[in-house]
Amino acid sequence: MTLWPIEQLLTHAGRMILLDRVVEWDPERIVCERAIRRGDAFIESGGLPGWAGIELMAQAIAAWNGCQVLAAGGEIRPGFLLGTRSYRVDADMFPPGAKLLIEAVRTFHDDDGMAAFSCRIDTTGVHAEARLTVFSPPDPTPFLDPRNTLDSKGTAP
């Protein structure tokens, strides 16, 4: 099991990479780590807001995808978070200094790139969980073209 630097696994850059590293991964799951440090993106006086857990989970899924792609000799491409179900976190903040373990387990995947993952975040005194639905198309280009977006009335520009 190769453990690539997190920067090689995600299409994010700089401060938008919210994970520190991959702890372990296999064809069905990944475990990543994040230490909560003052001054990092999204940090408030009390720590990392609980709502940011969804982005940590989404980035863990992206890192899982990156591991699969690099292990197969492919090239990392963007993916999309489509939604979440039942996100629950039992605290308002992940406190400064906490070391978070973020786990994502694949529960569904089809040949068109749709997938679902059961995710959890654990640290001392805080637990979060959700099911995330994601999409990683073979060619994301049409989805990234701003000409393909709809305006507030649901019509194409």
Q: Which strand order do you get reading across the main beta sheet?
A: 1-2-6-7-8-4
User: Strand pairing plus helix content: what structural class?
Assistant: alpha+beta
Roughly what percent helix? 10-25%
Please count the helical segments.
3
Give the CA-CA distance, first to last residue: 46 Å
**Mean pLDDT across residues:** 91
How large is the radius of gyration? Answer: 16 Å
Order of helices and strands: HEEEHEEEEEH
Extended strand count = 8
Strand content: 35-45%
Query: What does the largest sheet look like?
Result: 6 strands, antiparallel
Low-pLDDT runs of 5+ residues are none
Description:
The longest helix has 19 residues, at 53-71. This protein has helices at residues 6-9, 53-71, 141-144; strands at residues 21-25, 29-35, 48-49, 80-89, 93-94, 99-109, 114-123, 126-135. A six-stranded antiparallel beta sheet has the order 1-2-6-7-8-4, with helices on one face. A hairpin with a 2-residue loop joins β7 and β8. By secondary structure, the protein is of the alpha+beta class. The chain is 17% helix and 36% strand. The mean pLDDT is 91. It starts with 5 loop residues before the first helix and ends in a 13-residue tail after the last helix.
